[in-house]
Design goal:
Shape: elongated
Number of strands: 23
CATH architecture of one domain: Sandwich
Structural class: alpha+beta
Number of helices: 15
Low-confidence stretches: 1-50, 360-463
Strand content: 25-35%
Radius of gyration: 50 Å
CATH topology of one domain: Jelly Rolls
Largest sheet: 8 strands, antiparallel
Distance between the termini: 159 Å
Length: 495
Amino acid sequence: MKTSRQSTRPGLSKLPLMAVMTVAMGASVAVMPMSAATAAPVSAENTTSTAGLPSFVARDYKMTFHDEFDGTKLDTTKWGYQYGCFDPAQRSQAQYTDSPDNVSVRDGYLNLTARYSPMKTKWDGTQIPRTCKHGSVTYDAPFTSGMITTKTKDGKVLYAAPGTGFYAEARIKLPSARPSWSAFWGTGTKGAYPANGEIDVFESKGYDPTHLMSNVHTPRIGDPKKTTQHQGMMTGDTASSQSTFHTYGVRKTADAIEFYFDGQKTHTVKMSDIKGDNPFLDKDNNLVLMLNQMVGGSYLAKQSNWSDKTYVDATKYVDDYKNADGKGATMYVDYVRVYEPKTEADKPVQSETPAPTPTPTLTQPEPSVTPAPVQTEKPAPAPTTAPAPVQTKPEPSAPTQSAQPVAPVTPTPAPTKLAPTQPTPTPTPVQPSPSQSANQRTQPEPSVKPAQPQKPQSKKPSADRKVTTIVYSRYHWVTTIWQGLRKWVITVWLW
């Protein structure tokens, strides 16, 4: 069961493994809730659907709402329950409830089950017949069934397909109980019915599986309390609507309302064909979605002869709702999905913006530009050979702190920064000394050391030799005098 329907869910593969294993074990597993034993089981063979999304949906639309019914109970953040007699004007014979006997989620499907339940229990425990009232007329309504909407019983809209345009689709297997009246439809959010309009994706008749009518209801000209119906019939393999799942879809655009069966368009209602007030031209008039199974009612008159009301009274076919071996009394819903037209942000513009590809090209010139400012720092060596600027790169990087104070020729900044390094306050002798010392510290290691050391080295030893020369000259003078005096004494003695 799950294996076959998983392939029919485009873009959604979140089916629980346990459900798949359950299907693989055999088709004998019932899809009905435990208390709903009267419904016919859904086997693997009748879940196969050849339906696919219309081509325009995959190309131009995005999913904005969906319910896969994969939980264990109805998601009340998306759906609300309908209660009581829904359409007494049509003399429908079922009362809607929120009982699991009528509305349940099981094995990946929504189950809307109709039951024969002629009596109901009052608040005090007493049993009374189920009835509906239309005007002053009260009639029997001995059945219960289920109906859900994307609106709460208090009127709060949980979701509505946008009036600007949408495509809504449901995958459904219809009940075969002869007096069943199932539908997938919706009404507008602006105003009261019929001023807000109605779109019936389909309405079915249990005794005729090929009867799948699609309608657009708008206020009738001259009598706005009634509606004008723009009708059409779905075509295709409609004869199997009760034995297998099919998709039922509707597309609303600014120009038309189109109906689809298994992804194929069956007929179109053009906006230009709708005379009088057309609520679907209002882009703010969104559509509340509904799913339900009614029982009995005037709609079940034979279309070929509306006077034939054979199936209008469902009490004549109670067995269709009592026996598990009889006709199916459950409307199975696989999913409901709504798609909206893609905006410019949703279109593959994001893939067309391969901005990251040009970015590496932009990053490549950046390292090539980096050597340029190195050359611009010293325009003079630019025309020279390569080794000259190579030497200039480390020089400004290391002594930038000392070179910057020397660069300004103004005498004021020079003494302020050089004063702590040398105690001499005079600016004139200090300025050449730091510049020379800086150059001697930075340049001695490569090759400048032999050029400048000759001058200072010649000066430093001259000061040492000066002392030695003074001492030696004094000693020589004393020796000379002593030798002269000695010669004079010897000469006088001899004489």
